[in-house]
Write a structure and sequence with these properties.
This protein has 160 residues and is of the alpha+beta class. It has a single domain (29-158), classed as Nucleoside Triphosphate Pyrophosphohydrolase (Alpha-Beta Complex). The protein is 18% helix and 40% strand. The protein has 3 helices and 10 strands, in the order ββββββαβββαβα. The strands form 3 sheets. The chain has a 4-stranded mixed sheet with strand order 6-3-8-7, covered by helices on one side. It has a 4-stranded mixed sheet with strand order 9-4-5-10. It has a two-stranded antiparallel ribbon with strand order 1-2. The longest helix is centred in the middle third of the chain and has 13 residues, at 74-86. The protein is globular, with a radius of gyration of 16 Å.
Length: 160
Amino acid sequence: MELWDAYDGDFRKIPNMTLIRGETIPEGVYHLVSEIIVRHTDGTYLLMQRDRRKPYGGLWEATAGGSALQHESPLECAIRELLEETGIQADHMLEVGEVRSDHTIYVEFLCVTGCEKDHVTLQEGETIAYRWVSRSELISMEKNVLLTERIQAFIQDLQK
């Protein structure tokens, strides 16, 4: 059973309230998800292809990430999720934004790394491939290839 902290719309923890993955989240309550875009020091970005058994299977994602466990900060979650999903230990992590959607507060990070580009690991049941793309390739990717509109907005923000 995965436990999450509960937050109000102002991103304050709600005392004495615990959320459980898979259960309905009450109206006005949110859980935390950290998402990380990975940029290599050479300027390329990491894309991960979703396992075909998952929703939106086969699409490419420009972020690693997932739900924060109970008592985990956004940064702690980002570091853990990045390591689990890619094998990358964060050299530098910068919080770049926050979005609320469907009972979720997404905290978005940019990780700049000098990792060995061919040492990315795939997480069983989550991802099936990876590739590094230029900024212009990332920005020009079609909606039917790159998941999701919210992430596309995140990428557009990187242009600023």
